[in-house]
Design goal:
- The chain is of the alpha/beta class and about 400 residues long.
- It is globular.
- It is built from nine helices and 20 strands.
- The longest helix is centred in the last third of the chain and has 25 residues.
- The protein starts with a strand and ends with a helix.
- The protein folds into two domains: about 200 residues, FAD/NAD(P)-binding domain (3-Layer(bba) Sandwich); about 200 residues, FAD/NAD(P)-binding domain (3-Layer(bba) Sandwich).
- The strands form five sheets. Strands 1, 2, 3, 4, 5, 6, 19 and 20 form an eight-stranded mixed beta sheet that branches. Strands 8-17-9-10-13 form a five-stranded parallel beta sheet.
């Protein structure tokens, strides 16, 4: 039997940030992970994947400066190594290669049943992240057995797929990057575009993430968001991090020969069916992008930078086929990549803390007294989903956790 004051489940950037915040408060804790620290970055990302954020946004807890060029983009493997180095430097109390089977209430605290035996604690922080499982539509069950199905969590590159045409479903960051890699390898690719955004990688000489940082886009608190459920469903930013700071959008993919179609809605009689809303979806993405660029131009003018930086510009509208296909026979497809989003895996939590859709209920990361969650979209702000948002979230939750522990002692 192991006992600790706080059990942190998940040793990615969020779990490490919470460990750092609790250590600063001298709160006893144990960090546990089913793999090694940063395992998801090491084994659940394809080799060529680069982070969407520049290095200055990828600081781990307590880190003041980026490793290497702050404006460069590291690979997922490089970031896993960063996590490993952080663990070596900080030596947190960590138990790796240990799976958590269940968490339940035990008296005033909690019991975790793990592959290393039971662990009792007064508090639990669930930091397993938002991207533990692929979100695959139910109609995927109708895909013919001879068609390989994969997701960004299991995709490893063009060489790992059978020869032939590939259907990539989903056009957020993962879908765009995978479609690009496949097309550049010589594959014939069809990309089904659903919920979609568009951004330039660089605008007026600066990374778009720097502009969004300066505008405070990432810092709006959850309490000021009109429709938080809609915002939390917003896909990841449509960016790619390359040395040339390339912009990745549907126009760039079409130039590579990718066929662009509307949102995939069903499979019937061996055919993939697509929505006719492609033009509307892309027009909305262009509109939202231009609104952001307008805000940047206003900020630059209001702060006296307008004449000191590159001039404002606008980009060609997204080009869509005049008559995009509405169906595609799957007999000509060898692989489908379901880049349709991700969902957390909280099935090990055996407590009534879920809503009717199976999502964990929380308020700024506080599920209930003694139980906390990190790493979910818009946990406290839009920055919560980014690596550099983990530190602020951890500090806030660690403060709440400390107060809750004090109240439990006083009760």
């Amino acid at each position: 039997m192991t006992r600790t004051t706080t059990l942190i489940i998940g040793a990615g950037q969020c779990g490490l940030a919470m460990s750092h915040a609790l250590s600063r408060r001298s709160i006893d804790h144990l960090l546990i992970d089913a793999g090694e620290a940063g395992e998801s970055w090491r084994s659940r990302r394809w080799p060529s994947l680069t982070l969407l954020t520049p290095n200055w946004m990828n600081l781990l807890a307590g880190q003041r400066f980026a490793t290497g060029d702050p404006d460069a983009y590291m690979t997922a493997g490089d970031f896993a190594e960063e996590i490993g180095a952080w663990v070596q430097r900080n030596a947190p109390p960590i138990l790796t290669r240990t799976a958590v089977h269940s968490i339940s209430r035990k008296g005033a605290g909690f019991r975790a049943e793990t592959s290393a035996g039971p662990i009792d604690s007064q508090a639990v922080v669930v930091a397993t992240g938002a991207c533990a499982l692929p979100r695959i539509p139910s109609f995927a069950a109708a895909v013919p057995a001879n068609v390989v199905q994969t997701s960004p969590l299991t995709y490893r590159g063009p060489d790992g797929l059978p020869a032939g045409r590939v259907l990539v479903v989903g056009a957020s960051a993962s879908g765009l990057q995978i479609a690009r890699e496949l097309a550049r390898s010589g594959r014939q690719v069809t990309l089904a575009v659903g919920n979609h955004g568009r951004l330039p990688r660089v605008y007026r000489g600066a990374d778009i993430m720097m502009w969004m940082h300066l505008l405070g886009v990432f810092d709006e608190p959850v309490t000021e968001v009109d429709d938080i459920e809609r915002v939390r469903r917003t896909p990841s930013l449509p960016l790619i991090g390359t040395p040339a700071q390339e912009t990745l959008d549907l126009n760039a993919l079409r130039a590579l020969g990718v066929e662009v179609v509307g949102r995939m809605v069903d499979i019937r009689a061996g055919k993939a069916l697509f929505s006719g809303s492609l033009a509307n979806v892309t027009a909305a993405a262009d509109l939202k992008m231009n609104r952001l660029l307008d805000r940047i131009d206003d900020w630059a003018r209001d702060h006296g930078f307008d004449t000191l930086i590159e001039p404002a510009q606008r980009y060609a509208l997204t080009e869509v086929p005049d008559d995009p296909r509405l169906e595609l026979g799957l007999d000509g497809i060898t692989t489908i990549v379901w880049a349709t989003g991700f969902t957390p895996d909280h099935r090990f939590i055996h407590m009534p803390v879920f809503d009717r859709k199976g999502r964990i209920r929380h308020h700024g990361g506080v599920v209930e007294r003694g139980l906390y969650v990190m790493g979910l979209p818009y946990l406290r702000t839009a920055r919560s989903v980014h690596i550099d948002g983990a530190q602020d979230d951890a500090e806030a939750l660690a403060g709440q956790l400390a107060c809750d522990l004090d109240q439990a002692i006083a009760a």
